[in-house]
Amino acid sequence: MATTPPAASTARNEVRKVAPKLIDLSEKVLYGDVWERSGLSKRDRSLITVAALIAMYRGDQLPGHIERALANGVTREEIGEVITHLAFYAGWPAAMTAGRIAKTVFER
Fold first, then answer.
1. Which tens digits make up the pLDDT trace of 31-55?
2. What pTM, to 2 d.p., does this model score?
3. How far are the Cα atoms of 18, 34, 79 from residue 46, in angstroms, in the given order?
4. Closest CA to 99 of 69, 64, 65, 54
5. How many domains does the chain have?
6. pLDDT for res 37
7. Is residue 64 within 8 Å of 2, Cβ to Cβ?
8. Which domain holds residue 16?
């Protein structure tokens, strides 16, 4: 399993206190199985996940997945292209919010 980005670790630790089974399933099924499947590279999974989170306007989850995407070989430029592309499919506000979140992650 890939190293957990700091933002994701913090969120998991907070939620673990409220819904430990949710975190158990996340760690064992989502990251322990789904993310490890050979049908897509982790890089591709990261691009897909970042795009989905932008499109669904899920700002709380986006920083950790941008960090994961960078660790999985997605470049800052590619993340910028995903954000720009999705402005036309997911909406301008979603793209602008994603751009601000990405900037924050890139500056860490």
1. 999 999 999 999 999 999 999 999 9
2. 0.86
3. 27, 12, 10
4. 54
5. 1
6. 95
7. no
8. 6-106
